[in-house]
Amino acid sequence: MLICVKRIFVLAGLFMFPGMYHLELFAYAQYIGAIAYLLFNFVAFYIYIRNKSIPELEQFSTFSDLFPKFSEGIDRDSIHAVFTMFSHSILKQLLTDGSAYVMTFTELLSLKDQAVYDAVERVGSIIVRTILSPIDENCNAYFSNTIRKESSVFNKNTDNHDDLVDTLSKVLHVVGVIGFVACTFGIPYSPVVISLYGGKLLSENGGALLLSLYSGYILVTAINGITEGFAMASMDNRQIFTHGKFLFVTSIIHLIINYVLCVYMNSAGFIVANIINMSVRIIYNWRTIREYLGDKCPSFTEVLPTGQTSIFLGVSLLATSFTYLLFATTPGLSYTLAHIAIGAVCLILTAQDTAQHDSVFTVIVDSLAKKHRD
Fold this sequence. Notes:
Helix content is 80%, strand content 0%.
């Protein structure tokens, strides 16, 4: 809704206010979208209050109860919690978009190089937005609802807690396989995708190299999303505060690494810096998970594909790399289509083998098939 309101306002504004500076129009769209989104949430809460369908909202009787009441004083613990989460959001923003800040406040890259990097990042993040983000959001909700911070969770061996560990293990395996598949097929097909998406502008300015590196970034960001979601759900207030310090230090180091690598590697340095940053965060999160789960913590090797899937991925990488050298480097649509066709066959064979012989994916496929039959 937030995105749609902003885009609709910009589109309407281009026709209704033709004399307005376009960047100002986008700025006003941010305000309009934020206000509409805020009002939507207030209205939704008010509807829930009227319907009395959520027990946690029984203390709210009128719409005015949604707003602060200064006569009741200030809850310092709540203020501290909000400030902590707000600080985390700012630090994560610095870690996520550190390259954008370096490009904005320095002159290390030309405008053309910045445009190429932005275009490649948009293409590469398609998998993150369409596949990994929904998985992260659902897993974060599941972990938060299942874990109870007030008690020592694993003093008793309950089915609920065993299911939690089993879910963490399986989800890590799923996102790990997705990441390795993205790496395997992203490297040989990055030049084709860049050529089809941006033509010579992106192809002749290192777009293929950037997208190849981004396929590796997809792997580490997939793993980080799950580990960070579980780690944050299991942290107490002290650990959250410590995590904030960790993010503060890593955000500063991340900006420095972005700057240094950009000097030596141009825009490719930004993606390498992001991979380093995500890897460090994975190590920190996994250490927190191990402290929380203890002996029940699954092995980190769960993220790896099975041996048979790894063989298929390795053969696919060799085959598609060979067909890239044989077909894709030769001008002509037929050669490009031949390269794509061989990659499609390799991907289908890999997916079929994984669905049949990987126990995690076998359960998923059987569950989906059962739902379809029902």
